[in-house]
User: Fold these one by one.
Assistant:
Number 1:
Amino acid sequence: MSNRIQRWKENKIGWHRNKPNSKLIEFINCLHLEQGDQVFVPLCGKSIDMMYLLDQGYRVLGVELSTLAAEQFFVENKIEYSIHQSGEFSVYSANNIQMYCGDYFKLKPEDLKSVVAVYDRASLIALPLELRVKYASHLYSIITKGCRVLLLTLNYPQSQISGPPFAVNKEEVWSLYEEGFECQQLACFNDIENEPKFQRANVDFIEKATYCLRKKVGEKMAKKIKGVVAQFGTKGYGFITGDDGEKYFVHQKNIFNKSRLKANTRVVFNAEESDKGLVATNVVLEGGSKAASSSSNGSSNGMIKFAITILFIAQAVVIYKVFFASVVG
Ligand SMILES: C[S@@+](CC[C@H](N)C(=O)[O-])C[C@H]1O[C@@H](n2cnc3c(N)ncnc32)[C@H](O)[C@@H]1O
């Protein structure tokens, strides 16, 4: 966390843009906003997109760790502001905008009770996988039912260049949100031509995607739990011992990327109850990497089967020859 504050101190804020995001302008209608509605901007930095929202007649509620970001936002946009304390947050406020300075994960539903929509640009993708899981589930827990989210993401081959921003593909957006939100992809295009940093690193592509999510009415998102893989067999299922002491059945189809798990690996998952007992779904490795052991295991198993088959055929040929020779001879 101090690393992020340090970036503001050193002015290393390469994500900041000086004009409103074109996808916000293009797709703002998907949020179904009316004049005076309040839009939540998580991990807001000093985003100029907040000025765009204010200029359209909406109210803004931002949350940002760095007080420097908040000060710069108000000073650079020539907005007079006051500061007051609310719980763990220093709240920078002016007409129609409040910026909560503090940790997003400490926000409570009562802080967002007037919020009707969320705008996420460079926020989810600023976080490593484990925090993204926590971020999505926290967002679900603090916004009201029916609340809409305009989400912008990037996707590129993560093995070719490291984040942040981190690569988040459609599959991951669904895995993070589908349970509690109706999800729709609005746009997705390769923008490598406008990304010199990615070109220099010879990255194959960089997809920019826009999603509209709507928090489902009357459904609950499953509880997130951490635990350790107790066993996982070649048939594609096994058990996880949750940190809550419970034993969870896990099937390969419920693992991110449909990969296999190794025993003793730490994982994060949704805890669900079924007729047959506790089940783990949306399983990801704790600490970030998406896949566990998988295709490489699959291919080595394949090689072993192939070698045994060849051995078996060779033996059959030898036995046949010996038998044939003794009969003929
Ligand atoms: C990549 S920047 C994006 C800022 C903004 N969304 C934009 O488009 O310019 C991510 C921001 O999130 C802030 N941040 C990171 N973790 C946070 C947390 N747990 N709570 C609040 N802000 C956080 C960082 O200080 C940084 O300003």
Number 2:
Amino acid sequence: MSIFTTYFQQLSRLLQQARGDWQPLPFSCTALPWPELTTPLNALDEDALDALDANSEAALAWLSQWRPELPDAHNIVLPERSRAPHYANPRWSSGIGGRKWAQINDFAANLHTRHPILEWCAGKGHLGRLLAQQGALAVTSLEWNADLCAQGEQLANRLQLPHKFVCANALDEAAAKLFRPQQAAVALHACGELHLAFLRHGAAAHTQQLALSPCCYHLIAGQHYQPLSALGQQLDLQLDRHSLRLPLQQQATGGERVRRLRHIELTWRLAFDELQQWLTGQANYLPLPSFPKRLLSGDFSDFARWACEKKSLTPPAVIDSQYWLARAQARRLLVKRIELVRHRYQYPLELWLLLDKAVFLEEQGYQVQLGYFTDAQHTPRRYLLQAERQ
Ligand SMILES: C[S@@+](CC[C@H](N)C(=O)[O-])C[C@H]1O[C@@H](n2cnc3c(N)ncnc32)[C@H](O)[C@@H]1O
């Protein structure tokens, strides 16, 4: 049995048992869902909650007092993979942000191939272009945004690289034909359904080498994640999109401004929810879509009017911001207390999703490696799954 299978079984058991910890929807809760944690969680004020949530080790140690099996999941540590020797950027790299430049260089440092390359969901093909610069035989980049394809093609032509674009939908069946046995297929930050298609097509075509850094697990076609591996189908956690978002909620290492905006956003979303429950007479949480941060720089009443319009509600003539914001305070603490517990499952859940893919590739006859390809300061999505046919 491979180490991935062992870890996967261990995590499946733990996550199944702890379902009541990671599944609650914090915004929909009106009370803490865990009687045994009510007193210790209520003893934490907002500053203490924020400080603990920001310190993963301390938060895990705190929760382990009531969840003694949880550290086992966090003790599964993945290896750091290769890094580029330096991030000095040549003239042709101008226009690529510093963090993206580090990511693609680190990703490329892990790829050793003599095969032509297929780059999946390539954007402007920055990774493909770097690989072509580094001597790849030929690079084909698949991307559906025609503008990005045209820009990528122009950059490749200027450098006279063997790098071409296919402008097509990765989810069309025809895209499967791009995968060949004698090939290295790469995908940097491909979202949910796109990375699932990448793995399915690559395995079906017996593509020699696969390298994937997944992101946005919740962007899938169905309502629930369908495990790829046969073992995952037996141990299925029935993850819905809400649970699939949990690993993506890691706090970006933002400064004070980012923290302040997050605080305002949380408060305003909850204050609006209080307002809409009063307007509709329905005690149900009504989620708002994501919105531009500039909406947070005005007054709450303007935000509430915008939100009412989004939800086809008629706002009251006068919106008493102070009243609704005060109502949001108590709920904000409840949300933070629930999230302090849920966040301790971000790592186990993401690992479970990665291990399902690792086990799938092993089932398909690949030798698999899983680790971190770049430093956390470059991106929170830094897992690299690599597979080579034996
Ligand atoms: C997160 S970006 C990653 C881009 C690039 N790999 C990188 O790391 O810079 C995802 C890319 O996938 C493309 N994309 C999204 N859906 C697609 C689809 N159905 N078919 C092809 N490309 C798609 C987007 O246009 C975008 O360029």
